[in-house]
Amino acid sequence: MSRPRIVIVGAGFAGYRTARTLSRLTRHQADITLLNPTDYFLYLPLLPQVAAGILEPRRVTVSLSGSLPHVRLVLGEADGVDLDEHTVHYTGPEGGEGTLSFDRLVLAAGSVNKLLPVPGVAEHAHGFRGLPEALYLRDHVTRQVELAAASDDRGECAARCTFVVVGAGYTGTEVAAHGAMYTDAQVRKHPMRTGMRPRWMLLDVAPRVLPEMDERLSRTADRVLRQRGVDVRMGTSVKEATHDGVVLTDGTSVDTRTLVWCVGVRPDPLVESLGLPVERGRLLVDPHLQVPGRPELFACGDVAAVPDLTQPGQFTPMTAQHAWRHGKVCAQNVAASLGIGERRPYHHRDLGFVVDLGGAKAAANPLGLPMSGPAAGAVTRGYHLAAMPGNRVRVAADWLLDAVLPRQAVQLGLVRSWSVPLESSSPEVARVAGRPERDAEETATTGTTGTTGTTGTTGITGTTGMTGKGSRAEPAKDQPGGEPAKNQPGGEPAKNQPGGEAARNQPGGEPAKNQPHPPRAAGKPRRAGDGGGTGPARGSGKARKTSRASGGGRAAAPSGPTRAAGPPADPGPEPPANQPPPGPDIAPGPVKRTDGRHAEGDS
Questions:
Q1: Collapsing DSSP states into helix, strand and coil, what is residue 190?
Q2: pTM of the model
């Protein structure tokens, strides 16, 4: 008799804990497959420290293959699930498609950015849900300070030194707190930057900072932010975002080049394509995290509406404290369905929260005991070291070095603005030029007011870091943010031109025909149907989930301009005659052109 096949979709807090616990419980009695876009588990609570230059990016990641040696890792994003055929269809990182068969399926796809119908936000804001976005924000903030220092225009200098964060939940509060310390360190001891005053603003429609937490934690965080000069404005959000700034709901206009969107999250729309009962986008499950009527289907984390047994009639909130424990109980119940162990319901009460405000400052209430100052800072960092599945020594070493050495403020330019669009449902994967991408999903509008989400809340067990998967649009050719036109700066160089394709049969060029080992094409052709048509799913003919908001056929790519202006040109030869010169290699922030058009660069 063949061994049962278990497929887990997503390797965030819930999915990772499920895979690790199942691997221990089954003891090689089942084939466990983990489907995830990346080969690492991201410890999301420390992501603000990556953006602030305290931790290196690999410190907050844990290798899936290294920490789960008995689990098969498949890189890809789930496109759809055929429950009748017991298959999961996915698309790999290089555009290839595949299908996984299962006897038990665990959905732990997590959450994605929550977009609101605010004009200009999708075009000019960036989220903070994945490692690429943190790396981009660090480079962008560093670059804005450097450009401001080199500018002779006081208005431009002030705009570049103004950073607006929308959403005063856990994520937004930590980003503002760490960001203010980072920019202050850039100008404090630099003699050429005397007089520069970086300004951080934190906005939210809620009445107080950290509205989902204890009020004592809110007061502590609010006090620390204001002491660092952060302009905290409660009851205020963004009414409109433009290239040069934002208009607030109170009518105030703020000139800025940086808008960080941290207003909350929503469940991954993958669950909507299943056609099963949902509660506000979350798949309804019983207290055993099993979908009623589907004994082979389990769900946990942000995609699951799990009954809260401590508060009858309610569901557990979308926090990591619950997601991490969901994973353990889900694994036990999956194993029980295979005859290993016994089922148990999910029952957990919040044990408190910790918020790292940078330096020695933090706010925490472990077991309901409110703490602030250095004591809270020690508890917070000690908790993170204990909760991380790996890299503890490296993280502690980085903290020690940051305490005794000046912070390195350099921009590496590894992540461009156009590669981390806000409307992406896969913030853990940066968009790459030339890679086959799936069609764009429709922008989700889940409300009319910018309420702060709770997924970023760090509990005694961590911050929800479920990997949200979704469609990533390939920019339309010849459109802003799309593939640059051939023979244009930043596009494909003309053949037989310096930097272009080498002449045939020339040294270094394309080998002659009928020779062994011809080179592969530079990029795979797009799959049939990628142009916006609809196509049937594999298996039972159900619609595949590419536009996750609807779960139906492939959505057409947007015809209007996208957020950014496409990949910048590489340094190379002089452009052809009558063509505009290529942009700078470092892709600076948005600057004003003399001809009235917007230059390529950051939004």
A1: coil
A2: 0.73
